[in-house]
Automatic annotation (TrEMBL):
<protein>
    <submittedName>
        <fullName>Amidase family protein</fullName>
    </submittedName>
</protein>
<dbReference type="InterPro" id="IPR023631">
    <property type="entry name" value="Amidase_dom"/>
</dbReference>
<dbReference type="InterPro" id="IPR036928">
    <property type="entry name" value="AS_sf"/>
</dbReference>
<feature type="domain" description="Amidase">
    <location>
        <begin position="43"/>
        <end position="403"/>
    </location>
</feature>
<dbReference type="Pfam" id="PF01425">
    <property type="entry name" value="Amidase"/>
</dbReference>
<dbReference type="InterPro" id="IPR000120">
    <property type="entry name" value="Amidase"/>
</dbReference>
Length: 414
């Protein structure tokens, strides 16, 4: 199924004028920069009529790449990121640079420099991050697609919290040229949209691939040894309802223990972002600067605790777990809640201890796909009127099969 964009055949020019007005009236923490919609080039193509917001970690010619910080001072981008060029060539109209967690370093989306947009579905609660402004731009119909990054869930968490679909592709399927890094080992580039068809079309443009399914068998598996501790009761109930919906169609879902996930739980995953963000930015600004979000500064400082030898050992262990999982579970598609909790309130996160606890809980299930170098998608689901996400995770390179399965489940959930 192909996505359709409402403005393709009914006056994009007049819509852009009204869009500009709506952006001006919207929460000013959604966008860091609003682009001049008439000056940016566009072409006829697969995404003609699509409005796309761009996370502030990507270079857009003529605009600063802030990464959600005020300390980077990279200046005005002299060229587009490769994925931005692909979007423009496919006919997309770029709306603006969206807000994000500073340097993409948390799954909650808070930004003390530019503010944090409210959750459009649950006022007073966070939108999730780090692609916070991107998710909100789609939820408020200011964009059809949000281009973002995902190092440990930064596409899928805000998608789940805002009632959207978030797709983290296999890392090497989409270029990261012209994108600020957090962790070179774990960063992936992908879309947030309202449905799987739009995510599929966006991924095909971003990757230059066609989403052709294989004939390999597919097994839906709920792991019994990972992802289900400390679930909010509403999330737990919603996940069981979703499973019942799937099984009512005759789709078999297996529940079983996966040994490689026990090994994964022993991996110090935090080292990847802590060590690699320091390596990326230590020559560009003072990592101890008071101009950094104190919570980001604290996380980056943890990188000093890790020697080069220790980090190398962590990478070796990660590669072993990744290889073992790929060999044993090549045809397995994991089913889990995207996030273990409901979107926290802004007020609850004022306490640093609560912030740290909730950040880890929000990232727990999603980070697995990044460490395994797989692909993963969060589908929207409602439980007791609250937005939760149902997540499918597959092995490296199974993107097309994952999208196909997700489209089938999407019809069940809707």
């Amino acid at each position: 199924m192909s996505a359709t964009f409402p403005w393709r055949n009914r006056g994009l020019a007049s819509h852009l004028e009204s869009l500009q007005e709506r952006i001006e009236q919207a929460d000013n923490s959604i966008f860091i920069d609003v682009f001049d919609l008439e000056s940016l080039p566009s072409h006829e193509g697969e995404l003609s009529g699509a409005l796309v917001s761009i996370k502030s970690t990507f270079d857009v010619l003529g605009y600063p790449t802030t990464g959600g910080t005020k300390i980077l001072n990279q200046g005005i981008a002299q060229a587009n990121a490769e994925v931005v060029t692909r979007l423009i060539s496919a006919g997309a109209k770029l709306v603006g640079h969206t807000n994000m967690t500073e340097l993409a370093y948390s799954g909650l989306g808070l930004n003390p420099h530019y503010g944090t947009p409210d959750n459009p579905l649950l006022p007073g609660r966070i939108p999730g991050g780090s692609t916070s402004g991107g998710a909100v731009s789609v939820a408020l119909n200011l964009a059809d697609i949000a281009l973002g990054t995902d190092t440990g869930g930064s596409l899928r968490i805000p998608a789940a919290f805002c009632g959207l679909t978030g797709f983290k592709p296999t890392q090497d399927s989409v270029s990261r040229q012209g994108c600020l890094p957090l962790s070179n080992e774990l960063d992936s580039v992908g879309p947030i949209a309202r449905d799987v068809a739009t995510c599929r079309q966006a991924w095909e443009v971003l990757s230059g691939k066609q989403a052709d399914e294989t004939q390999d068998p597919i097994y839906l598996v709920v792991p019994t040894n990972f992802g289900f501790d400390d679930l909010d009761p509403i999330v737990k109930e919603g996940f069981e309802q979703a499973l019942a919906n799937i099984e009512s169609l005759g789709i078999i879902v297996e529940r079983r223990h996966i040994p490689q996930l026990d090994d994964y739980k022993e991996l110090p995953v935090w080292q990847f972002s802590a060590v690699e963000s320091r390596r990326a930015y230590q020559s560009l600004f003072d990592l101890s600067s008071d101009q950094l979000d104190p919570r980001v500064r604290k996380r980056m400082a943890r990188g000093t605790e890790v020697s080069d030898e220790d980090f190398m050992q962590t990478c070796v262990l990660r590669d072993r777990i990744k290889g073992d999982y790929q060999a044993a579970e090549r045809n397995t598609f994991l089913l889990m809640p995207t996030v273990a909790c409901l979107p926290p309130t802004f007020e609850s996160l004022e306490d640093d201890g609560v912030f740290d606890q909730m950040n880890l809980l929000c990232l727990r299930n999603t980070t697995l796909a990044n460490v395994l170098d797989g692909c993963s998608i969060s589908l929207p689901y409602q439980s007791q009127g609250m937005p939760i996400g149902i997540m499918l995770t597959a092995c490296h390179g199974r993107d097309a099969d994952l999208l196909a399965v997700a489209e089938k489940l999407e019809t069940v959930f809707s």
